[in-house]
């Protein structure tokens, strides 16, 4: 029997992967996740699919007062639940985690505090600013830039802080920033002191403004700042031009739409984000099982009777082996059967099942598969099994039959269109209208067709004219061209890593 407990977890300052290993483990076993609105949505996906998710905090759709949040946390624990309370930054650094912990103690609810990376530590690091450095002073001061959640400037002895020297880091709301800067200048802080202002820290939208205190104060008064920010004051800010790394990555600031099914998009999304891109996930299709498992089950049971099994995607591998494990056979049935995989990703997925591939064509398209198979010998009389999508191209099967092969096609999975307008999904149409998309990626012909189906042939052709279109291969690019969409990027290697490299190379040339 599990023991109810509340984990007060520091989620870090934005980047979903700045959570600690301990925090991630506790999140994954929670029955209920109560989270600050600023916690990254991708981090929430690490929770169990059946976990209850409750958004709280000032920016939540239905925000709760702190007392109500405390009662909610305790109530869920009393129901016998394991509760993960995800806090932005660290629970005990300028947060209400101390109040929540004390309330749980008074209520007799068992809890554990899992520290996180405070925003005052993580955000300067992502901006390329070390908080300490030889010659940069002997103190680091953290200042809360608001009073108990109100919009007024903090009550701080700015004159005494100025005498400390070193580095000061202040959490600033956009409303408090002008008053904070003016207060500092009016209490003997030299207007020539080096400073930096970082908004959306550790996220792909991060923006850093460097200057002197006087320059930042003038900017705050004249133009204002829309987003909350971290104000860093001290000689260490001058090191940013030498130590910046996060916003110096090749795709930083580029907004890239990924239309691949969410279940398959993790590698592409992570690769693009590691290179600095802001990734908008907008899947146009979902991968689902076949309507009738009987043909696939029969193929699994009789797989040893074939000379070749040709897997054209990792999806085909996954669904084939899922059904094989549910039936009477296992991988031993492949003894004597040769395996062909289109692409290294498909071959790698087969390797995860303990199977080595006999053939990976040099090009990852049907025409190259047939040529590679013909190079192995006469195909006449050979039997081929093709487990693949319900809408796969007929070219591969037709060419094999023309070569004398006996081909069995079986639906391993289906692709079904995604409907737009679902809750939580990005408004891609509006983003395209507002010119807020730099690159749109297509990873299959079906993603193209369903994108066009969702938004219409004529609107799509117009909306995508200023957008860089990246297609994973010539088949996908041809499907796009048939809908009036011009592909800008086609990688030499028709794989996800090849697509990512081609996008980087495009912008490096530009």
What does this structure look like?
The protein is an alpha/beta fold and 510 residues long. It has helices at 21-28, 41-44, 66-78, 97-106, 119-126, 158-164, 177-186, 213-222, 240-243, 266-274, 294-301, 314-326, 344-351, 366-374, 395-402, 428-433, 445-455, 457-463, 474-482, 496-509; strands at residues 5-10, 32-36, 52-56, 82-87, 111-114, 140-144, 167-172, 194-199, 207-212, 229-233, 255-258, 278-281, 285-288, 308-311, 338-341, 383-389, 406-417, 439-442, 468-471. The chain has a 5-stranded parallel sheet with strand order 3-2-4-1-5, sandwiched between helices. The chain has a 5-stranded mixed sheet with strand order 6-7-10-8-9. It has a 5-stranded mixed sheet with strand order 13-17-16-14-15. The longest helix is centred in the last third of the chain and has 14 residues, at 496-509. The relative contact order is 0.08.
Brief overview, please?
With 510 residues, the protein is α/β, with parallel strands linked by helices. The protein is 35% helix and 20% strand. The protein has helices at residues 21-28, 41-44, 66-78, 97-106, 119-126, 158-164, 177-186, 213-222, 240-243, 266-274, 294-301, 314-326, 344-351, 366-374, 395-402, 428-433, 445-455, 457-463, 474-482, 496-509, and strands spanning 5-10, 32-36, 52-56, 82-87, 111-114, 140-144, 167-172, 194-199, 207-212, 229-233, 255-258, 278-281, 285-288, 308-311, 338-341, 383-389, 406-417, 439-442, 468-471.
